[in-house]
Amino acid sequence: MAANAKYDLECKHLSKHFSEFTAVDKLNFSVEAGSFFSILGPSGCGKTTLLRMLAGFESPSEGEIQIHQKRVNELAPNKRPVNMVFQHLALFPNMNVSENIAYGLKRRGIKANERQHKIKDVLERVGLDGSQNKQITQLSGGQKQRIAIARSLVLEPRLLLLDEPLGALDLKLREKMKVELKHLQREFGTTFIYITHDQSEALVMSDKVAVMNNGRFEQVASPQELYYQPNTAFVAKFVGQTNAHSAVVCEQRQGVALLKTARGRHLIVATTIDQAEKSVVDVFVRPEAIGICEAGREVQADNQFDVEVEECLFDGASSTLVVKDTHHQDSYRVAPGASFSLQHIVPGSKLRIFWDAKQAICISQEVKGES
Ligand SMILES: Nc1ncnc2c1ncn2[C@@H]1O[C@H](COP(=O)(O)OP(=O)(O)OP(=O)(O)O)[C@@H](O)[C@H]1O
Questions:
Q1: What is the residue with the minimal CA distance to atom 30 of ligand 1?
Q2: Residue whose CA is at the smallest distance from ligand 1 atom 9
Q3: 39 in a domain, yes or no?
Q4: Distance 25 CA to ligand 1 centre (A)
Q5: Where is the ABC transporter domain (predicted)?
Q6: Which of 236, 254, 278 is the last residue of a domain?
Q7: From the alpha carbon of 41, which atom of ligand 1 is closest?
Q8: Residue 53 CB less than 6 A away from ligand 1
């Protein structure tokens, strides 16, 4: 099949077995040139193994890797148009900033004059011009991060592979670096392949996210699609907070299913898929999709019932209420948002929660991932 210039990376039927164990399982995917592509999944799902195959540190058991329309399976790591940024940045502590960035350029035989020019240019682009003579130990965590990225980008790779590069930073710096990384990727236009187990990193930065589980991609989609239209229960649970309940389908009519949760609460859920009667589904509703009002008040909503507050996890606009269905004992997490005052809410407070059918999704328990 002819490779497509639209893509910088195409993987076909890519697998990696370690003896009997399959770490990466027949992956088929493409990454658009100039995009930010994240691979998101729990520890042990195969992310690093996949990245190492792309970089050439691990050879595939089956399948093909094409970078910019060329098969690279047989190419050594240093011959691939790829660079990698690790969690522990591997900057040389005994060299200053300029020497760190110059290292790869020297190995490529770039002359001193041109090196200085490229170093100045890349430092300007990462916002650190003037730090050429600083020692690595004189830099903050975020500055080190930018130097590590500058050192890779100065070599103008087709693909930049990033292996949890924010994992070693504290929370505040991580938040800041998420935005910076996204800006850097846009500024340079290099294709980024970013692996992480942190869904917020993947959602904030990516054009596309592949959610990986047991060596396979469950879904490859934009952050919004993953969040609002997860294809599988794993994706619904792994991406963002959600309330999940197992339920049985009682009836389905005109795109709406009537379900009964294991504890007996009837729920109405919009569905595009035919759900057979009596089939078992998972029903998901996001905490922020649930409205709150005073207990007993009838509102215009497909689903509504009274609850008792079990916990009020106050955190300003990001507060969460954990509530329990007064009749059927199912628990829900509700994100009331800034407009609902939690001033008088305590454990034991009675409220009503409500949501419309289209704000919940149901996924048949048999549904499996894509590739
Ligand atoms: N060289 C190896 N030999 C045998 N098994 C391996 C080897 N490398 C990885 N594995 C196994 O393959 C699976 C996937 O590992 P991998 O490091 O790719 O996961 P990961 O998603 O990157 O996890 P983490 O987020 O914890 O780094 C794990 O079960 C791991 O034990």
A1: 44
A2: 49
A3: yes
A4: 13
A5: 9-239
A6: 236
A7: 21
A8: no
Ranges of H-type helices in the chain: 47-55, 97-107, 112-125, 141-153, 171-188, 199-205, 223-228, 233-238
Q: Is 165 in the pocket of ligand 1 (CB under 6 A)?
A: no
Domain that residue 305 falls in: 242-364
What pLDDT sits at residue 371?
45
How would DSSP label each residue in 179-192? HHHHHHHHHH--EE
Q: Which of 9-13, 200-204, 250-254, 306-310 has the lowest mean pLDDT?
A: 250-254
**Both 25 and 101 in a single domain?**
yes
Place of tokens 């999940």: 244
**Which residue, among 5, 13, 29, has the nearest Cα to 158 in the 3D structure?**
5
Q: Does pLDDT of 274 surpass 70?
A: yes
- Same-domain pairing of 252 and 229: no
Q: Is the CB of 16 under 6 A from ligand 1?
A: no
What does the alpha-carbon distance between residue 72 and residue 26 come to, in Å, rounded to a whole number?
Answer: 17
Q: Is 169 in the same domain as 302? A: no
Cβ neighbours of 99 (radius 10 Å): 16
Task: Classify the C-alpha dihedral 246-252-253-254 as positive or negative.
Answer: positive
Sign of torsion over alpha carbons 37, 53, 164, 183: negative
Query: At a CB cut-off of 8 Å and minimum separation 6, what does 165 contact?
Result: 85, 86, 87, 89, 145, 148, 149, 181, 194
Q: Are residues 265 and 212 in the same domain?
A: no
* Per-residue pLDDT tens over the stretch 151-160: 988 998 889 9
Give me the pLDDT at residue 142, please: 80
The closest-lying atom of ligand 1 relative to the alpha carbon of residue 212 is: 21
CB 310 within 8 A of CB 290: no
Average pLDDT over residues 279-303: 94
Residue closest by Cα to atom 11 of ligand 1: 23
Q: Check whether residue 105 and residue 33 sit in a common domain.
A: yes
What is the tally of structural domains in the chain?
A: 2
Last residue of a domain, one of 197, 215, 236: 236
Residue 94 lies in a domain: yes
Q: What is the pLDDT of residues 306-359, one digit of tens each?
A: 999 999 999 888 899 999 999 888 999 999 888 888 888 999 999 999 999 999
Judge whether 369 lies within some domain: no
